[in-house]
Amino acid sequence: MEENEQSARGLHFVGKKDELIEAKRSFRSIEDRDILIIYHQGVFYAMDSYCYHAGGMLNNGDIEQEINGKLCIICPKHKYKLTLAKGECLYKGNNPKEKPPVPRWYSKGVKQRTHTVTENNGEIYVKLSDNPNWIESDYYQGEKGKIERAKAEASEKETS
After folding, report:
1. Mean of the per-residue pLDDT values for the chain?
2. 12: buried, middle or exposed (CB in 10 Å: 19+, 13-18, 0-12)?
3. Alpha-helical regions (H) of the chain
4. Which residues, other chains included, contact 157 with Cβ-Cβ below 8 Å and sequence gap of 6+?
5. Cis bond leading into 132, ω under 30°?
6. In which band, very low, low, confident or very high, does the pLDDT at 7 lie, cut at 50, 70 and 90?
7. 146: which residues sit within 8 A by CB, 6+ positions away?
8. In this structure, which long-range contacts are made by residues 19-24, counting pairs with CB atoms below 8 Å and at least 24 apart in sequence?
9. Measured over all CA atoms, what is the biggest interatomic distance in the chain, rounded to whole angstroms?
10. pLDDT number for residue 152
11. DSSP character at residue 6
């Protein structure tokens, strides 16, 4: 794929397929946005690399196979469950009106921005989300979020 054709379509080269498969998770900065690329069960996913809740890095999060029928990454900091495909946050709760209350999975909605991954001749490209709406993970990609992340990292270093 020609470089200017790639740019015109909004695609950003992030690596060779074989290398990304071997790495399983890769961090890239694209247009001032920090992205986590995940390879799991034969599929590539891309999402903002900082959890929407408190800016924790998702790269060390466990992947849960099936939460309410969806593949999720678990934020290692506060255990939020985010679907890899859509960035939806899931939680388990009870409906107190049910007798007896039965634990079920519920959605908080899309909280983590996800991006499109495509492959062309063994090369992997990411197209950043063009959703114009504010998604909560956007905060940690901006200047205020970067300051918050730096403060949190400094306080973690002091306590460890």
Report:
1. 90
2. buried
3. 3-8, 17-23, 143-159
4. none
5. no
6. low
7. 140
8. 20/44, 20/124
9. 61
10. 79
11. H
> Could you give phi then psi for residue 69, rounded to 5 degrees?
80, 10
- In sequence order, what E strands does 114-153 have? 114-120, 123-127
How far is Cα 61 from Cα 158, in angstroms, rounded to an integer? 23
Q: Which residues pair with 116 in a beta bridge?
A: 127
Give the CB-side neighbour count of residue 85, counting CA atoms within 13 A.
9
The alpha carbon dihedral of 156, 31, 75, 136 has a sign of: positive
Whether the ω angle into residue 103 lies within 30 degrees of 0, i.e. cis, is: no
For the full predicted model, state whether its pTM sits above 0.85. Answer: yes
Can you tell me which residue has the tokens 């990304």?
20
Least confident span in 18-27, 63-72, 108-117: 63-72
* DSSP-derived secondary structure letter, 62: P
Over range 71-98, report the average pLDDT: 92
Tell me which residue of 61, 17, 12, 35 sits closest to 114, measured CA to CA: 35
What is the number of residues in the chain? 160
* Cα angle: 149, vertex 11, 119; to 5 degrees: 105
CA distances (Å), origin 40, targets 32, 43, 54, 86: 25, 5, 25, 15
